[in-house]
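ok trying again, last paste got cut off:
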Amino acid sequence: MRRFLVFLLIALLAVLPAAAEEIEIQPEGYTYCGYMPGGITFLMPKDMVSYELYEEEKQAGILIYAESRNCSIQLRRFEPDEMTMPQFLQLVQQAPNTYWEVSEERGTPVLCYRNQAPSDRTELVGVVITGTDGCMYKVSIFTGWDGNFAEDAPVWEIAQVVADSLRHEDFSFFPGVE
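nice, full thing came through this time. structure:
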């Protein structure tokens, strides 16, 4: 019995560091949001005001639109026959003044791109991932009510937090979510 307990303790000590790496800290002033059927989630500032969408926006695949003084965030869903990650990557690669990179999140490609010629009316940063449902999801970050996109504007730090936090999440433990 004693050997078993020692073995169990050693096994737990070996597993704890790996489990600790999976735990993500929620930065102060941010909260998680996402889309359960697609299995995606990301951080957004807590001070965001979410708006009810018009029918045309819903039909265009827009799932979330929220804004604050510092930024606006839109989450949009694309069906596989509308747009895929490889197709979207080709578009981004052809766009002038766009910096882009593809990273991996738990084995899933994540495309992040930044407008190198920003304005108060253009998308500043976009992050794209394919959801667990096979659809493409795009988080777009724009300026907020202040219209500030200067190099030291808060919108850039917010965009970085949003981009770094976009990930798949298993929501299958919720009833009705596949």
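cool. The beta strands are 30-35, 40-45, 49-50, 62-67, 71-78, 98-105, 108-115, 125-130, 136-143, 167-168. The chain is about 25% helix and 35% strand.
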